[in-house]
Design brief:
By secondary structure, this protein is an alpha+beta fold. It contains nine helices and eleven strands.
Length: about 260
């Protein structure tokens, strides 16, 4: 309570939303409701405690939502941030965990918080050509990753020969730490819009250790389910940590774009 940090699952959030709307909690969410009671986040009458007001009010009426999907050796984690009219909260999870930790943030620290979620750090290979481009297909990308995950060969040249993928693609993927996608949506103005009219901006990056950072330019983000198949063109470009920091900053809408959503 002292630090306004809460560990909540999607089920917990659903219960809180139903209580705000004064709706009945279905049986399948009864365990989540009991856990909120045991944690002291609901009183004896199932009223939400005042300490939860900033978080619940932000989740119920968000202005900006940032989603950070990180895919690594231990699986996929979904982290992110939610910005309301008065408060900002960031949330992070561990692979395989049902709960995420929600913590308050300030506007000045939001970019830093998002960058930390993907471990954006100084690139000690910045002196290398930062404009290098690799082109292939999504199908060949999947084949290279599958062979490497299966441990069939540690030699990139062998994997490239077996799959028909560019050798350079196999070399870069051999050093892959994780892939991450950062997507920001808001109610307001933007160059790209979702089917339901929300503005959206997104970025996809490979963190390849000693091979540096690579921005996936094709298929271009935001990518929706079913949009990409094996024949889809793949193009990745080497990028510096400094460029990525600016790209993350640029994902967030400015004040004028957010204000327009309330007009």
């Amino acid at each position: 309570m002292a630090r306004r940090r809460f560990r909540l699952s999607d089920a917990h959030i659903s219960v809180l939303g139903l209580l705000v709307e004064e709706s009945r909690t279905p049986d399948e969410l009864s365990q989540a409701r009991d856990e909120l009671r045991d944690a002291g986040l609901l009183d004896g009458d199932d009223k939400i405690v005042a300490d939860l007001y900033p978080l619940v009010s932000t989740l119920m009426e968000p202005r900006v939502i940032a989603r950070v999907e990180v895919t690594g050796p231990q699986g996929v984690t979904n982290n992110g941030a939610v910005m309301g009219d008065e408060f900002i909260f960031v949330h992070e999870a561990w692979p395989g965990a049902a709960e995420s930790e929600y913590a308050p943030a300030e506007p000045e620290t939001l970019v830093w918080s998002l960058a930390r979620m993907v471990d954006l750090h100084r690139d000690f290979t910045d002196g290398v050509d930062s404009d290098e481009v690799i082109e292939s297909t999504m199908g060949l990308l999947d084949q290279v990753i599958e062979r490497m995950e299966a441990g069939e060969s540690a030699e990139p040249e062998t994997v490239a020969e077996a799959t028909g993928a560019p050798v350079r693609l196999a070399e870069v993927l051999a050093e892959l730490n994780c892939m991450w996608r950062m997507t920001v949506v808001w109610q307001g103005d933007g160059h790209t819009r979702t089917d339901n009219g929300l503005a959206v901006s997104a970025l996809a990056v490979w963190d390849c250790g000693i091979e540096g950072y690579w921005v996936r330019e094709l298929p271009a983000e935001p990518v929706v389910e079913g949009q990409v198949d094996a024949a889809a063109e793949l193009r990745v470009r080497r990028a510096s940590a400094k460029e990525l920091w600016q790209r993350v900053t640029d994902l967030l809408p400015d004040g004028a774009q957010i204000v327009s959503s309330a007009s």
